[in-house]
From TrEMBL:
Domain of life: Bacteria
Protein name, entry field: Chaperone protein HtpG
CDD domains from the UniProt entry: HATPase_Hsp90-like
Keyword terms, alphabetized: ATP-binding, Chaperone, Cytoplasm, Nucleotide-binding, Stress response
Binding site for ATP: E31, N35, D76, M81, S96, G97, T168, R315
The UniProt record lists the keyword Ribonucleoprotein: no
UniProt KW Nucleotide-binding keyword: yes
Record-linked PANTHER family: HEAT SHOCK PROTEIN 90 FAMILY MEMBER
């Protein structure tokens, strides 16, 4: 029997490793199963090159729980180790790395930046164990099996033992604080989380935990539509089928495989992030992929797998690295190319899916200039009648003649609520204008951003002004009222109690509304963004609404009102017309709304008496 002390100068190596090595104790299972996979894959490689001539047999990893003995055992039938190899890899190599780790990080209080090539994975077992045994037999012929044992102090024992088959058993004697790891359900959950797609069968009880050949490890030419959809269902059992997907498969200048799915999003508020999982050689690493996947693509679902992404010792946080930026740019380009391809090859299908696709496209165009360049071609805007879609170029061609303002800018007219804004939409349509729908969560920000990115294009909401003023062409219209009648009408509107209302008489079409209330585009946008939580803008939300009230002097109702002799009734009728216009913009509330209802009843009763 060999006895020895692990060659480190610090007596408290294990407490330090326990504290710093991993933030999450359950990761020890991933580390030990990953080591078992590596040992199995090494044996396969040796067999393929003729260096191992024995029978491979069933190559699988088993996880066994013994509640009475309070042990958890992870076994493989891989290469195994000789006594010399145990001494080298367990006693020397790993702990020379541990010593380097201590020298570098002792006293810093945080090990989250330490890198994982110190070979410390095996020692994660001591986070949950009073004692750990390694029982191993090398694949090499004529070599005795050995047993290594350590109780978490620097002392260990290494002795010959008997073991029928090649491979390695790691036996963990679980400590009192970690008895959660003696629960079958807990172990099953951890295995399903970390080992679901490992390339070697992993068995717990009678059940195989993993799919050893997930879709992303195959070539796109080997997969059918059903294969992609089945894999999506495997990842997200309760989700609706995806719209489409992108298979990533690149080996230069970095290695990356994976499948990214575009989920169906029925409502804007159903957006779910953190649905992309990162794997490294089929080992689950994290759902936190924001450093690899651009933020706007965090709405996608799926898997990416890259051994080239550098990870710290717990494999749970990405480090700054040029490869990460290259991978992010590659994914962005692939997504843009896929959207462009679908748009060109199947525009009707693209339009059908636009409710979901539009969120990705708009978000991407706001945050990534290269994506925006490609997005300019496939971004589509639906008209308010939901009868057709325009690209930016198509909208320009149809609307430029009527919707170019005095500064030479194309004015894109939009509605956010076609039902509520119907009277404004109809008035704009009567002038031949094209109105598109912008009603998603991202549209307010999208409009602001695109105005700064698209040349000579501005957006105006259809209720931002009267139809005659939506496109500023300096046109003037005459009123049919005499000067005296206009003066009297201005006087009647001058009695309105609302503050911050600017009243203007204008000679509009006789068919237009008698009073039209609008809010200036810029001020309304600022208030909307502030209400949505725009940083540094909260004071805007509390500012009173700035209201423009346009009185259509050509509407026939004003001649009737002016010909009445009762000035009080005139004022009530004018007030009601103003309140109706405010109501159309949701600007009549509380006591003003109650007064409007009461006044309307009173005026109707007066009409009956007359």
């Amino acid at each position: 029997m060999q006895k020895g002390a692990i060659r480190v100068q610090t007596e408290n190596i294990f407490p330090i490793i326990k504290k710093f090595l991993y933030s999450d104790h359950e990761i020890f299972i991933r580390e030990l199963v990953s080591n078992a996979v590596d040992a199995t894959q090494k044996l396969k490689t040796l067999a393929s090159v003729g260096e191992f001539k024995g029978e491979l047999g069933a190559l699988e990893i088993t996880v066994k729980l013994d509640k009475e003995k309070k042990t958890l055992t992870i076994s493989d039938r891989g290469v195994g180790m000789t006594a010399e190899e145990v001494d080298k890899y367990i006693n020397q190599v790993a702990f020379s790395g541990a010593e380097e780790f201590l020298t570098k990080y002792k006293g810093q209080g945080d090990g989250t930046n330490i890198i994982g090539h110190f070979g410390l994975g095996f020692y994660s077992s001591f986070m949950v164990s009073n004692e750990v045994e390694i029982i191993t037999k090398s694949h090499k012929e004529g070599v005795a099996a050995v047993r290594w044992e350590c109780d978490g102090s620097p002392e260990y024992t290494l002795e010959e033992t008997t073991k029928e088959d090649r491979g390695t058993d790691i036996v963990m004697h679980i400590n009192e604080e970690s008895e959660e790891f003696l629960d079958e359900h807990r172990i099953q959950t951890i295995l399903e989380k970390f080992c679901k797609f490992l390339p070697v069968p992993v068995k717990f009880g009678d059940k195989q935990i993993n799919n050893t050949s997930p879709a992303w490890t195959k070539k796109p030419s080997e997969l059918t539509t059903e294969d992609y959809q089945s894999f999506y269902k495997e990842l997200y059992p309760f989700s609706e089928p995806p719209l489409f997907w992108i298979h990533l498969n690149v080996d230069y200048p970095f290695s990356l495989t994976g499948i990214l799915y575009f989920p169906k999003i029925n409502k804007s508020y159903e957006i779910q992030k953190d649905k992309i999982s990162l794997y490294s050689n089929q080992v689950f690493v994290t759902d936190e992929v924001k450093d690899i996947v651009p933020e706007f693509l965090m709405l996608l679902h799926g898997v990416i797998d890259s051994p080239d992404i550098p990870l710290n010792v717990s494999r749970s946080y990405l480090q700054g690295d040029p490869n990460v930026k290259k991978i992010s740019a590659y994914i962005t380009r692939k997504v843009a190319d896929k959207l462009d391809e679908i748009f060109r090859n199947d525009r009707p299908g693209f339009e059908e899916k636009w409710e979901s696709i539009g969120l990705f496209a708009k978000y991407g165009m706001m945050t990534d200039d290269k994506f925006q360049e490609k997005g300019n071609k496939f971004l589509i805007m639906q008209d308010v009648d939901a009868s057709k879609y325009y690209t930016l170029e198509e909208y320009k061609q149809e609307a430029a003649a009527l919707q170019t303002n005095k500064d030479g800018n194309l004015v894109i007219l939009y509605g956010t609520n076609p039902i509520q804004q119907d009277s404004y939409i109809q008035a704009a349509k009567n002038k031949g204008y094209k109105i598109v729908k912008m009603d998603t969560l991202v549209d307010a920000a999208f409009i602001n951003t695109m105005e700064s990115k698209w040349e000579k294009v501005s957006f105006t909401r259809v209720d931002a002004d009267i139809a005659d003023n939506l496109i500023d062409q300096n046109e003037k219209a005459d009123s049919v009222l005499t000067q005296d009648q206009e003066t009297k009408l201005k006087e009647l509107f001058g009695h309105l109690p609302q503050l911050h209302v600017k009243v203007e008489l204008k000679g509009l079409s006789a068919e237009a509304q008698p009073v039209i209330v609008t809010r200036p585009e810029l001020m309304r946008r600022m208030k909307d963004m502030a209400a949505a939580g725009g940083s540094g803008m909260s004071w805007y939300a509390s500012m009173p609404d700035e209201i423009n009230m346009t009185v259509n002097a050509n509407h026939p109702i004003y001649l009737q009102i002016l010909n009445e002799g009762d000035e009080e009734r005139q004022q009530k009728k004018v007030r009601n017309l103003a309140d109706l216009a405010l109501l159309s913009q949701n600007l009549l509330t509380g006591a003003d709304l109650t007064a409007f209802v009461n006044r309307s009843v009173e005026l109707m009763e007066g009409e009956k008496r007359n």
